[in-house]
Amino acid sequence: MSDQSKTLSVEQIANSRSDTVNRRFSVAPMMDWTTSDCRVFHRLMSRHAVLYTEMVTTGALIHGDAARHLAYDNSEHPVALQLGGSNPQELAQCARMAQEWGYDEVNLNVGCPSDRVQNNMIGACLMAHPQRVADCLAEMQAAVRIPVTVKHRLGIDDLDSFEHLHRFVETVKTSGCNSFTIHARKAILDGLSPKENRDIPPLMYDRVYRIKQLFPELEIIINGGIKTLEECDTHLQHVDGVMIGREAYQNPWPLLSQADSRYFNDAHTIADRMAIAEAFIPHLERRLAEGAPLYAVIKHLLGLFHGQRGGKQFRRFLSENGHQREAGVDIYREALARVAPQDLL
Questions:
Q1: How far apart are CA 59 and CA 91, in angstroms?
Q2: Which residues are annotated as a binding site for FMN?
Q3: Residue ranges per domain, the chain?
Q4: 125 is catalytic
Q5: Model-wide pTM > 0.90
């Protein structure tokens, strides 16, 4: 974050951004994937898509290196911090930190199914405790002026009926939170890994649509298994926004390069894939100067040339050579030379 942003008062930041978050199209928080480097890359393709951080636990911010978890590049706006936790006072404290650092939104994770977070009463297990979620969101909202939102599943384990989902939303909305992002799968906490929970439980988009029908006053954003803009268009006939997950990471160009003109009425000129790759170099050089390993930064670009001639060679070269101790920008440029420019779409 720049020195200029740090000098803004909390009230100035809140006043300037609290009404600017348009969640019609966003990229989901994904552990180990949606780092600051990834978000800088994504921002080169879309000016308006809302970008979410990886989930950060309240403990990591309160008892750990908060600056390491909260630092980001100013180009990332609009950017939202996703928090994991279940203690209302701790979440409120961390929400204040998010506001002080200039985040445009703070989001509560009620969807992560991993054993590690369950043991700390974080993530999807909170779907069994809707009043606790409401209490957390109420405290967070009382602490800040930036938007406070929630992301959750359809249900968990045997608490998977539509009636339970309805009661959950009905209870949580009493907190004053009016933006719900719903991953259209339930989570199976006993027996499935986090990876399996992203694929095995069936998608039930119609349940998300029904929630919007029953709570028209709420902003309902749908997430889960969405891969194309055409699918986004279909969902937007029923809900207020779409959140893209793995596809935005693994094949970002078709989605992010068209999002602004399609969903934000901004038809600015979009550079081609190679120009985007080259535009990332100044950021890469800064990160290398800070001591970041090459591969840790450029791994987020491996899907840029998905489906293009030379795309596999690009990925292979970086995967095989990017881990070298002294690897620098020259390795990245060599990888780019393996892509055929005339075939770029």
A1: 10
A2: 29-31, 82, 151, 183, 223-225, 245-246
A3: 3-263, 273-343
A4: no
A5: yes
